[in-house]
Amino acid sequence: MLTIGELASYAGVTVRAVRHYHAKGLLPEPDRDHSGYRRYDAGAVIELIKIRTLAEAGVPLARVRELLRAGEEEFAAAVADIDRRLQAEIRDRQRHRERIARLASGDSLVLPPQVVEYLDRLRALGVDERIVQAERDGWIPLAAHSPERVPEWMTRKREQLDDPRLADFYLTLSQALDRADDPRLIELADKLAAYFTRLADERGVGYVDDTDIELPLVELMDKLAFDTVPSARRLIELLKQRGWTGWTKLERVAPTPPGATP
Predict the structure, then answer these.
(1) What residue stretches are annotated with the HTH merR-type domain (predicted)?
(2) What confidence tens digit (pLDDT) does each residue in 181-212 have?
(3) What is the largest CA-CA distance in the chain?
């Protein structure tokens, strides 16, 4: 026979909790012995462990009382329901943990993993952080607008970045960021126009760009890029003279002579 302190110790609760469960009618109070102490048997330990386990699982005490009085099948079914609820809560908490982790990692909070990997690759190549930031700012609304197409676009981006020439274009632009009249922009425009033309001739214009997004979103993404990388606006002007236009949505156009009105 056990004292209330021993019962609480075996069941992993406090004496106060045992008395609380007595008061709620969950655990029957045994008669007192000749010394005036309540004595508990092994069955009380089992019942108390059940109460503690159900309560810790978030089951309201009123429902705990019902379950303790239920038959074997009803009790098993109720426990299965509790287990399913706990599994759902675990999945929710895991998602919260993942969001917290993404919050700590910056880009990952608002961008798909494929885009974050792409941005990290630009950084590894030595691309200026302002260009990376412009890419990031553009991908945020684009990924939110068409998340189902991100894997397709990223596959193409990775293929293009595997070409050393495109990587070199990024590095050249990085070096010419601070001056809109930097002569390297003219050389870059020549190389980019030739590169885009070759890609379009070999793989079709759709391969060069098929973002297929609404004009207001294109304009927003262009503005984000031009605000972050002012020399990009000059680069687009030079590209238009060579038969290509657009930052977010690249399009083939008739070449515009320098100084001509668009």
Answers:
(1) 1-70
(2) 888 889 888 988 898 888 888 887 776 665 56
(3) 111
Rounded Cα–Cα distance for residues 171 and 194 (Å):
17
Task: List, in sequence order, the alpha helices (H) in the chain.
Answer: 4-11, 15-23, 42-56, 61-69, 72-104, 113-125, 129-145, 150-161, 164-175, 183-203, 205-208, 215-228, 231-241
Residue 37 φ/ψ region, left for φ over 0, alpha for ψ in the -120 to 50 degree band, beta for the rest: beta
Closest CA to 82 of 72, 92, 71, 90: 90
For 90-125, b where at least 16 C-beta lie within 10 A, e where not — what string?
eeeeeeeeeeeebeeeebbebbbebbbebbeebeee
- pTM (2 d.p.): 0.52
